[in-house]
Amino acid sequence: MKRRDFLSRTALSSVTTIIGTDIVFGALIPKGYSPLLFQDPDPFTLFKKDKAMVVLNDKPWNMEAQAHLLDDEITPNKYMFIRNNGLIPEEIDVANWTLTIDGEAVKAAKTYSLAELKSKFRSYTYQLTIECGGNGRSEFDPPAKGNQWTIGAVSCAEWTGVRLRDVLEDVGITDKAVYIGYHAADLHLSRDPGKEPISRGAPMVKALQDETLIAYKMNGEDIPLAHGYPLRLVAGGWPASVSGKWLQKISVRDRIHDGPKMTGDAYRVPCNPVAPGEKVDDKDMCIIESMPVKSLITHPKTGAMIKNGTKLNIRGHAWAGEQEVAKMEYSIDFGASWQSCEIKKPKNRLAWQHFSAAVSFPKKGYYEVWARATDADGTSQPMLLPGWNPKGYLNNACHRIAIKVT
Ligand SMILES: Nc1nc2c(c(=O)[nH]1)N[C@H]1C(S)=C(S)[C@@H](COP(=O)(O)O)O[C@H]1N2
Ligand SMILES: [Mo]
């Protein structure tokens, strides 16, 4: 990841191998000069992402999937969205990487090496849904500032790591513990080492859940750099911003964690509904916890065509934060009537669930297939945009695809 500031003669020949051609006057490159080919690396190659992923921002890198790319039951790296608030750490010294647990509510701070974490504690693997709180932001009106995510800022990979609870037990926490907050190695956009781009967390009930992991593997391999290598907090079902990447420290706080992006409009929504565009008092804003019920049709791709008289097989995933999805339905008449889909149980708690249906159409023409999930509490996805909030969080409106029957 580190930009080359200069090219030694030996480096030059390896560069030639990478780009597949000679830098003709390479030997004349002035010292300290960085060739353009290193300055704007192709993010798809850099992060091993599929070319169909959509880049929303390059400083910092933010990239989302499209619905049809999320068809796999377990999201592979190439289709996983990237959401960075700052700059990816430039140098990662895995051999000396440590995790410190400190804060007002630990008996004494303790530091673990990666090797200690892996050998001292039992490891667990869970498939965990992590969705950016701002997924769907692009639809809000008046528009909300920030990355204009459409539907692709969600993933459900398999994470392996140790339970945060086991580590906290080993450290010893006091009865003052209220919240945990993470601290990570990424740099603030200003490059000021004294500033953190983001430092969020979760209340103890979430921190102590079985599935809340300090992960060191994703889909059976080292966590990819963009997703938090070598260590990451993973808290499925909550806004993905709780899942701190490049994890170095967890503070056990005696109050609600107050790191950057815990206050103001960041990851907070009006506690009660407000009119679009309304100014909301700070005291009337609540921290987002469990994410709302939502679903995605991942097959076919929107715009598919089928022959009249044949059935269309649709499939996708549904998830509901801390809850299970109890019911899944589809509509081909803009929500006037709903038919049921088959929905599977999750692989484990906090994993998304797969649904499918065989859809019949009455005659030729243009249709939209809408999908609607209902959680165990009986709450369904809204057909159109849900409650407006200043930063455009929690858009869980029904996903829809266009179909032409010919
Ligand atoms: N250290 C660190 N952790 C972070 C972030 C970040 O910028 N820095 N972004 C958060 C946000 S807002 C989201 S949505 C998820 C994105 O996870 P991903 O890039 O692995 O998909 O990481 C979270 N963890
Ligand atoms: Mo996010």
Structural features, described:
The protein is mainly beta and 406 residues long. The protein folds into three domains: 1-41, no CATH class; 94-287, Oxidoreductase, molybdopterin-binding domain (Sulfite Oxidase, Chain A, domain 2); 294-405, Immunoglobulin-like (Sandwich). Helices cover 9% and strands 31% of the residues. The protein has six helices and 24 strands. A five-stranded mixed beta sheet has the order 5-4-13-8-9. Strands 6, 7, 10, 11 and 12 form a five-stranded antiparallel beta sheet that branches. A hairpin with a 7-residue loop joins strand 4 and strand 5. The longest helix is centred in the first third of the chain and has 11 residues, at 9-19. The protein is globular, with a radius of gyration of 23 Å. Molybdenum atom (MO) binds at residues 83, 132-134, 240-241. The ligand Nc1nc2c(c(=O)[nH]1)N[C@H]1C(S)=C(S)[C@@H](COP(=O)(O)O)O[C@H]1N2 binds at residues 80-86, 132, 155, 184, 186, 197-198, 227, 240-241, 243-246.
